[in-house]
Design a protein that fits this description.
globular, four-stranded mixed β-sheet, 17 strands
């Protein structure tokens, strides 16, 4: 089974991240699901999305909590329709949340920016009005009401969400970025091997819509989709027929976001090519686990 990683294209970069892959059929609507409780301090929510597999088509990558690089926020990836193709724009970590197609991923990602929390020094504070956190285990919280919409459209462009980046979002897109961490890449790879997560099997309503931690596809902290975002329509062509031209090749034009052609002409990396966590990621994981254990001990006294 040939899986095309839609998460990573490059390591830290100050250029805008270009298109990863393109296909001729659009992704299903985003499913309706609840958010698992946050595992502990230092974890940030990364919303679920539809990824692409050249053999099986679209499959769901469950939303999950990820140990974040300190001071960084996650800009989700998104599908954009232009020039007759749906192109994937990979997500990234950065000091600000950039443009993600105006897609309503929920849980703080309403289409513009992120209202689920904020960094204050080296600690992340969670907005309880948006994110599912246990105040016994996590004390860095506040509450700020936000407007929630029920739009489940999963792509940007004609027929989808017709949003364009603001000058500020374009500026954020030019900041120094970090690609998806190893836990995210492994999470996506694991999802690609689970047939139940393919849209052809679940018809837009995956049994594993969200997980408590990356790769945790069973157990108590799993959330099922309560409904598909809209009625599922089976594609009229096979995944092989639906695959579009390589990123940056003639015939594909992205109008929703400027493209870094140098990055866009590269073959997307497989999750296996760069799945081992680096030293920074290991240290961040250790800090988060140590902080969570300390919070738990204080609460047991």
């Amino acid at each position: 089974m040939l899986t095309v990683s839609v998460l990573s294209l490059s390591t830290a970069s100050s250029a805008q991240i270009g298109i990863g892959i393109s296909v001729r059929i659009g992704p299903p609507a985003l499913p309706v699901y609840a958010q698992p409780i946050c595992p502990g301090p230092g974890y940030l929510w990364t919303p679920g999305y539809w990824a692409w597999n050249d053999d099986g088509g679209y499959y769901w990558v469950p939303g999950t909590w990820v140990v974040a690089p300190v001071g960084m926020l996650w800009t989700p990836g998104y599908w954009g329709f232009a020039g007759g193709f749906y192109g994937w724009h990979p997500g990234y970590w950065g000091p600000h949340v950039g443009f993600y197609g105006g897609i309503n991923y929920g849980f703080g990602y309403g289409g513009v920016g992120f209202v689920g929390g904020e960094w204050r020094g080296g600690a992340f504070f969670y907005n309880r009005a948006v994110l599912n956190v246990n105040v016994v285990n996590i004390r860095n919280v506040y509450s700020r009401t936000v407007i929630v919409n029920n739009v489940h459209t999963s792509f940007n462009g004609p027929g989808g969400i017709e949003a364009r980046p603001t000058p500020q979002e374009e500026a954020y897109g030019r900041e120094r970025h970090i690609e998806a961490v190893a836990a995210q890449r492994e999470h996506e790879q694991a999802a690609s091997h689970n047939r139940a997560l393919f849209a052809s099997e679940n018809h837009g309503r995956p049994a594993i819509a969200a997980t408590g931690r990356p790769g945790e596809f069973s157990g108590a902290h799993i959330e099922r989709a309560s409904a598909a975002g809209e009625a599922y329509r089976a594609p009229r062509m096979s995944p092989a027929e639906a695959r579009g031209p390589a990123a940056g090749s003639h015939g594909f034009n992205d109008s929703a976001r400027p493209v870094n052609h140098e990055a866009g002409n590269r073959e997307p990396m497989s999750s296996r090519d760069n799945a081992r966590p680096n030293k920074q990621e290991k240290q961040a994981q250790k800090r988060a686990d140590k902080q969570a254990k300390a919070e738990q001990k204080r609460n047991e006294r």
